[in-house]
């Protein structure tokens, strides 16, 4: 493989010095690359595809990161009559260009001394004044050079590129490229229309809208630049960063939880901790490290986690005698201790919970809160003398999780049982609460409560002597809820101005903004604000006075709207004269002038009302996306419309796999694609979400929508995060 040094040396020979060279984690996707260089590397990030046609040969397409490449339009775009282009396999790409998958770059033509690959450049990359950001033959670095320097480099290595207008092709004008066979000069692209922008931000397969789509007109850099409907991924990223919930970190998939988000997690923690203690659960803490031997003790259980386990192999400069894993979950850490503690029926039940972090080294593109390599959670682990007692607890905990979402976060959830295929590895059964993100048309697993049966007891040889003097194996449960809750809340309630926080978890429930004017006694005004704040705190309202003098009231309004504070209280000179204050609701923007004498009671009432109405609106919206289907055709039509779909189902694993396979194939065919990137954060495949506990009656003889066999249950399906 070509080294970075070889590339920089080749650039230097031409007098080219990159304006930036950024080192980062391996970026296997365009999204990961953009995230890695944000604010560090100037220029348009370059996306690269190596395609082949049996007759025309190999082509390297280097385009803008947000360009759409239509494989069906390539023959006309590249001047290849009757071409049938496909993605080239990685072995051929490495052989001809000398780079590994994920590290392709137009600079790699330096390795193609035989001229086996035809280079095609998006004409915008080499327009006057253009700067490009690209990998120097490795996806752990990105450098910036000008478009003119890129042209000079590839030409110096015998690759005079074809310039193509991919934007025109994407807009439906397939003649965006020039003719140009043989070794003639770069073809002049024909002029075409502008690319289409915007559109509904349906997350699909990890792609979704291009970076520029859905951008607001005249958007302020301080505010949210993207609309939720137009570009959900970019909207989400900007909301959590600009509202001061998250700060990106230099290790991909790990994030800094700033006080604004961590205080919401603390509210969830306090609420749930009080709930679980009512059923006798106590908190503890176990080490985060686990030996390889213990981790492998339960092979069925660890199989699903194995690809995600992070290992510690060195101490200082020396290697450890044996690698140590960082916990992906704690069954194999805690249950050897259970074996030491459980001997008699009098030792049961054991009900333990720990609030901690876990590490799962996800290979898919990470998303803050939703899919991260390190996250915070609680994990409960209990052991019981009887199955009946254990089963009762599984559903008790599930109700607590539903309360976290519905009572605290105002997010409606569907409670149900996972199918055999989707249950927790090594357990008897799994129960779940499933949330729904309308803007994405996707479900997301909210939290799970597992009945483990006696499987782990057998594996770890946990036994006790029953009241009858006989040896028995305890029945165990485990259950967990994570910081994913915060991401779900943001995506369900947020709007184009930023966060919309449910009052029960908002770090601040009200902010007082004094409106200062000339000839106003600011001292008296601030004194009144302080008195109002004190009265609100006495009524249990979390309140802050924004008395910063370097920002005007309009700026403050936008700032606190972005952070999602439920109530904004505006106090101007006229309000002081009338002994009133203007109250503005964040969720509805309703405004009301309230006498100061009743403000504490009014504010407390509004917060309760707002909490209730946010849940009601979210439930009404969610319910409008739940549909029923009795046939495959109807099922796919409703899935395509972004719905959750309830179907009669035979509940056999092989047909669950068939649904995944067929749904993905049909979605790819409809999009004109052949394959889906395995590293994509989200998939086009449809999966089971749960067998809902609340479902309509199923008439006898109803056929399964996929197999035609007699259905045994209603099952909820959807595309999922």
UniProtKB/TrEMBL annotation:
* Keyword Ribonucleoprotein included in the entry's annotation: no
- Report the superkingdom from the record: Eukaryota
Please name the CDD domains in this protein's record: PrdX_deacylase (cd04335), ProRS_anticodon_zinc (cd00862), ProRS_core_arch_euk (cd00778)
Q: What is its EC number?
A: 6.1.1.15
Q: Where is the composition biased (Gly residues)?
A: 177-186
Keywords, alphabetical: Aminoacyl-tRNA synthetase, ATP-binding, Ligase, Nucleotide-binding, Protein biosynthesis
Q: Compositional bias (Basic and acidic residues) spans?
A: 188-200
Which GO molecular function terms does the record list?
aminoacyl-tRNA deacylase activity; ATP binding; proline-tRNA ligase activity
The keyword Nucleotide-binding appears for this protein: yes
Q: Where does the signal peptide begin and end?
A: none
Q: Where is this region: Disordered?
A: 177-220
Catalysed reaction per UniProt? tRNA(Pro) + L-proline + ATP = L-prolyl-tRNA(Pro) + AMP + diphosphate
Catalytic class of the enzyme: ligase
Task: Tell me the InterPro entries matching this sequence.
Answer: aa-tRNA-synt_IIb, aa-tRNA-synth_II, aa-tRNA-synth_II/BPL/LPL, Anticodon-bd, Anticodon-bd_dom_sf, Pro-tRNA-ligase_IIa, Pro-tRNA-ligase_IIa_arc-type, Pro-tRNA_ligase_II_C
Q: What residues does the Aminoacyl-transfer RNA synthetases class-II family profile domain cover?
A: 264-502
PROSITE patterns cross-referenced by the UniProt entry: AA_TRNA_LIGASE_II
Indicate what this protein is called per its UniProt record.
proline--tRNA ligase
- Could you read off the lineage of the organism from its UniProt record? Eukaryota, Haptista, Haptophyta, Prymnesiophyceae, Isochrysidales
